[in-house]
Amino acid sequence: MGSENFNEILRERTLIMSVRIYELFQTKKIILLSRPMIIQLIRSATSVAANCRAATRARSDAEFYAKICIVVEECDETQFWFDFLIRTGLLSEEETRALRYEIEQLVKIFTSIKKKMKDRIRQIENSKI
After folding, report:
1. What is d(CA 106, CA 16) in angstroms, rounded to the nearest whole number?
2. Domain boundaries, the chain
3. Residue 27: partners with Cβ closer than 8 Å, 6 or more residues away
4. What percent of the chain is helix, strand and coil (3-state, nearest 5)?
5. CATH class for domain 3-127?
6. In the predicted model, what is the mean pLDDT of residues 60-86?
7. Which phi-psi region, left, alpha or beta, contains residue 60 (left: φ > 0; alpha: ψ -120 to 50)?
8. What angle in degrees, to the nearest 10, is found between the helix axes of 35-56 and 61-87?
9. DSSP labels, 29-61
10. What is the per-residue pLDDT across 107-124, written as a single tens digit (0 to 9) for each?
11. pLDDT of amino acid 25
């Protein structure tokens, strides 16, 4: 699989994940107190998708690495908000199981990409010495 195809798959997966999280709340009645946390979950999920897309359009290794770091951070934040909303009873483990699994897989993928990119940048820097 070429890098362009892989990038397209990741762009699509992250977009689908963020849309599914948005759709999760379309039919829920939400008390005013819970709205900021839900908005944070949606923001972090959509940030994963937006920054993944930006990373695939990066003009340099450094720009790509910076965006991937943001993607990893936002994936982790998305996991946090799911955990928070489950513990507060607004969401159930059952209704979020597939989404949480997808986020977990994305964290693993992007963390691996981040590590490989960091190693690549380090090798380039060391070869200049």
Report:
1. 12
2. 3-127
3. none
4. 85, 0, 15
5. mainly alpha
6. 97
7. beta
8. 160
9. ---GGGHHHHHHHHHHHHHHHHHHHHHHT-SSH
10. 999 999 999 999 998 888
11. 94
What CA dihedral angle connects 51, 52, 57 and 59, to 10 degrees? 70
Distance CA 78, CA 100 (A): 9
Please identify which residue in the block is written with the tokens 């709205």.
35
**Amino acid at site 83:** D
Q: Which of 22, 19, 41, 20 has its CA nearest to residue 88?
A: 41
Residues in Cβ contact with 73 at an 8 Å cutoff, skipping those fewer than 6 apart: none
CA–CA distance, 41 with 75 (Å, rounded to integer): 10
22 token code pair: 């948005």
